[in-house]
Amino acid sequence: MKKIILKIDGMTCSACSNGLEKYLNKQDGISNATVNLVMATASIEYDPSKLTLSQIETFVKKAGFESLGLYQDQKQEKKQNHEKIKFFVFGILAIILLYISMGHMIGLPTFSIFNMHVSPRSYTLTLFILSLFFLYYGMDILKNGYKNLIHKTPNMDTLVSIGVLSSMLYSIYHMILIFQGKIEYVDSLYFESAAMVIFFMKLGRYLDGMSKDKTKQAIEQLVQITPSKAIIKVDGVEKEVTIDEIKKGDIVVSHAGDRISVDGEITSGKAHLDESFITGESKPVNKTIGQKVIAGSLNYDGYLEYTAERIGKESTISQIVTLVVEATNTKAPIAKIADKVSGFFVPAVMLLAILALVIYLVLGYSFEQALTTFITVLVVACPCALGLATPLAIVVSEGTCARHGILVKKSEILENGSKISTVVFDKTGTLTYGTLKISKIIHYSDIPEQEIMQSVASIEAKSTHPIGKAFQEYLKEHSLEPLPVENFENISGYGIKGTIDQTEILLGNAKLLDYYHISNPYLQDENTLSSEGNSIIYVVQNQKIVALIGVNDIVKENAKQVIQDLKKNHIETIMLTGDHQNTASQIAEKIGIDQVIANVVPSQKADIIKKLKEEGKKVMMCGDGINDSPALANADIGVSVSSGTEIAMDSSDVILMNNDLSKILDFITISKHTIRIIKQNLFWAFFYNTLMIPIALGILKPIGIAINPMIAGIAMVISSLTVILNSLRLRYLKKTR
C-alpha cells in the first residue's frame, strides 16, 4: 500500500468532507481515505498496482471537488490578495444594494430612479443586475451545491444554492409581471435576500479561512524557519550555495546570527543555539564538537563547522511537518459524532424545508410567505459550525503541542490523553539521563583490569543502550583504542555478546547467566553493588565470570517534580525496568514513584502493560530504547523522548522533542482542554440549530419572533465564529509550570 496526502479545493463544511471521504472509500484500490476539512487535505492509502495518482484525482473531481496535487510541506500556499479585494468590492456593492432596497424604510433619501414607488421598473432592474453580480461572486457555491446534489452527497452549498436559486427565480417571475404593468408585485422581490445570503456565506468563509490559516502557523513557522541559502567549505574556501545544493557530507559553516541550514554534527567550534522552535525550550543550548545541530536553530554567539547529515525530506523539520499534517488527517473518536450527524442532517433539513413550504400553502399562507420560510430554513440550518467543531480544535491543539515541543502522531491520541490514569516509565535514559559512570569493578580472574575493560568497551560500543557510553568514556580517559569485534549479537532483555581474538565474551545482568546456564557464586557482590544504586554487568569469558562491573546513572533534574505533579493530578506512576530490584527501588524512592517492577525482559514489559489495561487502567508508557518498543506499542499511549532510538519513536504515539518529562503533563493538560473545547463546540453547534430551525419555521411568530433569509445568513456566520473563536483559545494554553 502507498500513502499520499492531496490538497483539496471546494470543501466548505463537514458534509463536504464526509461526502468526499465516503466516495473515496467506496473506490476499488483505496484501502482507507480520511478527509480533513480544516487543512483541506485528503490522506489516502491505496494499492499502486490498481490505481495511479491521476485516477485518484479523477475520483476527487467526480465527487464534486478539485485536487490541487500532492501536499507540499516545503511550499505552503500563500493567501492571495485578490480574495481580499474581491470581498471589499462586493462589500461596497452589498451596501449599495441594501441602500436601494431598504433605505426608504428607515427614512434615508433616495433617488427617484431607484424609488420602488416612483420608478418600479428601473428599481426592479437595478436590483436584478446587482444580484447577478452576487450570483457570479457565489458561483463556486452554486456549482458545488449542484455537483454534490447530483452525487447524492448534499452539503451546506446545496442548501444555500436551492434557497438562493428559488429566491431568484421567484423574483424574476415577479419582475416579468412588473414589466407587464403589474407594479403591485414590486413588494414581492427577493433579489437583495438572495444576494445578501451569498455575501454572508462569503463573509463566513472569509473569516473561516483567516482562522484556519492561523491554526497552520506552527507548521508554516517550521517550514519558513530554514534559511534558503547556506555557506559550505570547499577546499578550505567558503562558498555560498542554496539549500538544494547541499549534499550529505558537505562541511557547512555557521556564523553568529545565522540559522543552521541542515541537520548535522559539529566538527569545529562551539556556540549557544536557540532550538525553541523544535523543543519548546527557550533557554539557548551550548553546542560543541561531536554534538548534533538541527536545521533552523539560531546561532547566538559562535562559529561552527558541521557535517551535513540529513537534508530535504530527511531533516527533522520535514519529519515534524509530515507528522503534524498526518496527525491532522486522522480522526479522533469524538469526531464521529459530528460525522454521523452531518451524514443525515442536510437531507433532513431539505425535507423539513419542503414540508414547511407545503404546510404553509395548505394552511392558506401566501406563496411568498411559504417560499420565504423555505429559504430561511435552508440558510439557517447550514452545518458549518458543526463541521468545524472537532477538526478545527484538533488542528489548533496539534499546533499548540508542536510549540510546546510535543509531537502527536494521531489525533485520536489527543482524546486518549485526557483519560490517562497510569504512567509507566522506563528507567535508563527516561527517568535518568543515561549518562552512566563506572563506579566499581570487581575482579574474579588474573586478567588485567585494562584488558578486561578494553574488551568490554569494544563490545559495548556496538550497542545502542546508554550504558555503552560509560565504557566509551573509560576508553577516552585511559587513552585506549577499541578492539575489532566479531559476531556481535544483542540478546534482548539479557545483554550482549561478541568475539574478540576468537574469545566469546558475554555482557549482561544475572538473567544472562541463567540464560546460558552459568553458575553464579557472586550474588552477594551483586546485592552490595545494587544496594548502592548500581546497574550490574557480569563479564563472562569461556563460560566463566571474570568480572562484575557496577555502573551508576544520574536521575534527571525534574524527574521528582514530574512525579509529584502527576500524583497531584491523581495519576498513578510505575517504574518498569530490566534492572536489579535494589537499584530500581533506590531511584524510585528518590523521586517518589509509587510502584517498581524490576528484572523484566522486553516481552514481559509488553505483558505487564497489557495486564494493567485489563485491570481497566488507561496506560501511558514512556521509554527510549529498542527494549521499550513492544511496551510502547501496547500502551494506550506510547511516549518516546527524541534522544531515543528510531524504532522506539516509530513505536510511540507521542515524541518529546527536548527529552523533558514535564511535557507529559503538558500533553495531558492540552488533551483535556481539547476535549473540553470540542464538547463545547458540539454543544453550541447543536444548540444553534435546535434554536434557530424552529424560529426559521415560524413557530415563534405568534409572540413576534421571526427571521428572514438575510438574518438567517448573519446568524449562520455568528454560529461559525463562536466555534472558531472558542477553538482558538487552545492556542493560548500555558505550560503546567
Characterise this structure.
- The chain is α+β, with helices and mostly antiparallel strands.
- Among the domains are: 2-70, Alpha-Beta Plaits (2-Layer Sandwich); 227-314, Calcium-transporting ATPase, cytoplasmic transduction domain A; 407-428 and 557-657, Rossmann fold, CATH 3.40.50.1000; 437-552, Calcium-transporting ATPase, cytoplasmic domain N (3-Layer(aba) Sandwich), CATH 3.40.1110.10.
- Strands 5, 6, 7, 8, 9, 10, 11 and 12 form an eight-stranded antiparallel beta sheet that branches. A seven-stranded mixed beta sheet has the order 13-25-24-23-14-21-22, sandwiched between helices. It has a six-stranded antiparallel beta sheet with strand order 15-20-19-18-17-16.
- Helix 4 (120-137) runs antiparallel to helix 6 (156-179), helix 4 packs parallel to helix 7 (191-215) and helix 12 (367-380) runs parallel beside helix 27 (709-728).
- The longest helix has 35 residues, at 663-697.
- The two termini are 44 Å apart.
- Mean pLDDT is 81; it is low at 73-79.
For this entry, give a set of tags.
single chain, alpha+beta, Alpha-Beta Plaits, Calcium-transporting ATPase, cytoplasmic transduction domain A, Rossmann fold, 8-stranded antiparallel sheet, 7-stranded mixed sheet, 49% helix
Total helix count?
27
Mean pLDDT: 81
CATH topology of the domain at 407-428 and 557-657: Rossmann fold
Unreliable stretches (pLDDT < 50, length at least 5) are 73-79
Query: What would you call the shape?
Result: elongated
Number of strands: 25
CATH secondary-structure class of the domain at 407-428 and 557-657:
Alpha Beta
Q: Which secondary-structure class do the elements indicate?
A: alpha+beta
Give the helix level as a range of percent: 40-55%
